[in-house]
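ugh ok so i messed up the first submission bc i forgot one of the chains. this is the corrected input, ALL of the components this time, i swear. 373 residues overall. if the numbers dont match what u have on ur side tell me asap before i send this to the collaborators (the ones from the other lab, u know who)
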Amino acid sequence: MDAAKRIVLIFEDNASIRELLTFFFQRRGFAVVFAEDGTDAVALARERKPDLIVMDLIMPGKDGVEAVGDLRREGDKTPVIMLTSKNYAADRERALATGANAYLLKPFNPLELDRTLASLLPPG
Amino acid sequence: MSSTGGLLHGLIILLEARPSLSVIVLASLGLFWLVVALSAYMLLFRFYHSTRARYRASRALLYRPAVELALMEESQERIESALRPRRWGDADVIQDVLSEAMRHLQGPPFDALRTAALRLGLVARAQRALQARALHQRERAMEALGFLRVAEAVPSLIRALSEERMELKLGALRALAAIGDPAALPAFVAAAETLPPPLLPRLASLALEFGPPGRDAAREIVNRHPRSFPPGVVADLLQALAQDDGGTA
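and heres the new structure output, hopefully the right one now
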């Protein structure tokens, strides 16, 4: 892995979405690491030291909000983008209150994801 | 019980008849070859389907770059060129590649892929496939028309709601919800009369995908079939309705 590249850690259990996100982030100069559930979020974040985390809300094992809660309790301040198909205000509020930095809906819009990246990360 | 009793009775008659050794041997041989033939058929069936799946996966790899070009916001000509069928029979594969990508995208890449699908005639193809004999072809056609948001397909999809098979009914409902034309909402409410009760919450959720026009349809479905909506499900739907009333997430 190129040491100069920023790392994005993607928690997503759908293979097609992982493929699209992988292409999206690789085109923007990120090295992509992915996991299919949030159970080992803390350990993975500690091991890989990502610059950004993209988290699905609904996953096997631990859900995205619980995983973000675990990260924040451990003092991890990595920006987290929640990417989910759940369009309810209550889920959004819960995710943001737990420590997610942004809450984006699926199907994902690359333009919106670009804008969110620009607001969360300094230019790479 | 009656079939078991019948079998036992038949066995008893057979034993009392005391068939000759040659009859027993012939019957055993016949049974043996029947099992061999069935096993061979099953193996060939599995081999055919796994080979077909591998072939389609390998063909799909040729067309996935079109999705990457759309994500890179390349020109429409390049995207369409990447989607042109290279071999007879690839149109099906291209449709699958597009459906799978468009299911997860919105914004400019979605629009570019949709335009490409329209120009390559995939929409017309999917509409023809609604009349296909094979169940899976009709199902995939409905899915494609939904992802492609083909408003012209709404009347055909409403007609498809009268299909006997539940998976086709549900496919038509999902496609209509994806297209989002409010003209389909009366058909949604009518579909509640033909769906089994456990599917009615799903129907009401799909009605909400139409946005504000779907709220009334969802309420009507809930009011007409209250027993199909236990408290937890009603709470979720009310949350979704409040979401629509209150604005964006």
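quick check: The first strand of chain A starts at residue 6 and ends at 11. that seems consistent at least. The CA atoms of residues 111 and 123 of chain A lie 16 Å apart.
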